[in-house]
Predict the 3D structure of the following.
Amino acid sequence: LPPDVIVLSAKASGNRWQLEGTASQAASLVPLLAKDARFDSVHTLAASSRFQDGRRARETFSVGFIVRATP
């Protein structure tokens, strides 16, 4: 994940994961994770919202994905 990402919650059930948090570019996370061969079915779970953190604009994210089994 990019260095500006803050993960506030990580949940797993077997190989199904869910991450929630904030980032400066939340929309870029799904394509970034989808390019990683370790993950499958990367998708957005909830709409993103924008907010100001001091002078920085931040966005919330909620993404789900499946971690592929390693051979």
